Amino acid sequence: MTRTTTTEEVVVTGELVATLLDAAGFVHPLFDASNPDRPLPGQGVLLLVGGMLERSGALDHAIAMVGLDDVRFRTMVRADDRIRAALQLRSARTTSGGSRIETFGCTVHNQFDVVVLEATVQMLVQPIENGPSTREEQL
Question: InterPro entries attached here (predicted)?
Fold first, then answer.
């Protein structure tokens, strides 16, 4: 299975970094408001990427995220960075209860094509009625 969806690029603004840091209440000195180069925490990157993938349409058939594994933050994301995500279907299976689980690899790059995040994501998806055994076979 090799279907890959790439999102549009999103600009991480200083205002966005400040809003997320302030709302979350981060107190580590790295995130102090006096630091003009403060990064966006990994949790913030995950939040942004989730929205980017939602808007891409790649997960329109998804009901819920049920797993997030092997998350690796490779480099910091800072204000004025531009990030894009690639989602690749790795496998699909039907559980004993009849639910469908699709497993994806997710890789996020910045404007310099440097990997900033890698993760494996499991999604509960709508069942495929009377059709191929995987969405990949539908394509």
Answer: HotDog_dom_sf
